Each structure stands twice: as C-alpha cells, then as structure tokens.
Amino acid sequence: MQPFLRSVAILLLGLGLLVLESTVARLVPLHPFTPHLVLPIVLFLGVSPDVHLVRGAGLAFFLGYLLDVSTGNRMGLQTFVCVATFTLARGAGLRLFLRSPSFQIALTFVIALLAGGTTLALRAIFSPASPFPSRNALETSFVLAASALATGLAAPVVFGLVQRIEARLGRQQEADV
Question: What is the CATH number of the domain that holds 95?
C-alpha cells in the first residue's frame, strides 16, 4: 500500500508544480527561462534505486499525461518524452546523480536540452509544416538552452521534495511493519 501512497503523493507534487509553474508564468514573464518542473521528478524516478521499473514508468507516463493536458500539446507528446527520459535515466544508471546539487543541475540541464530537442523534433515531424527562417534557428536554440538552464537550477529543490516524499512515506511503511 505504501508504494501506492508514495506514487499518489508524487503525482500530486507534479500536479502542484504544474499549477505553480503556470501561475508564476502568468504573474511574472519568465519566457524564455521557463522551467520544466516535471522533468526533475522523472529524472529522480529514473535514477533512484528504490523506485521499481514499472512504478517509475507508470509515474512518468501519468506525469507526462498531466503535462500534455495542462499545456494543450498534442496528446501523447510529453507523455512519450517523459517515459523516454525515465527510460534513458534508468538505462544510464546514474546513481551519483542524487549525491551532489551541482551534478543534479548539470545533468538536468543536459537532459532538459535533450528532452526539449526531442519535443521540437517530434513537433516538426507530426505537426503541419510551418516556415522556419534561419534567423529563428538561433532564437529557438536560445529558448531551449534558457529553459534547460531554468530547469537545471530548479532541479535540486524538486529533487529534495521527491526525496522527502519517498523517505517520509518509506519510513512510515517500516514503522507500520
């Protein structure tokens, strides 16, 4: 029952971060430095040894689905990117990722760049063609890098929140046994 409660708590955290992200974006113009606050949760699930593969993939799926619903993207775009990010993080086996905030920031920045590039590529493949003048390629690259930087800087805070959920509800499980 405890993994279920931890999963629900992580989904509620993801939903709360999406609401916070949209509220802050409405009040303070952060563009192009808008963080992707769900991505650090997915990364944490991918690198945490305590998260079972099926549970982590399911949570990544639902977090991506919540992101798709809240942003108005094509259904399944962010869902695919979140599950692929989870799988990449799990496959890479980067257990050191949880140790240092500087490493969390750096790796989240790199993964956010990859996820943003993947999203952009999928939009280019599956969306109707639109003009892409060469002067906008630099702007697009800047927006991807700025968003990845903001996501990387927010990662230690999000990681701390997810670690608290996992630790607190995990300790309750041990105390109940």
Answer: 1.10.1760
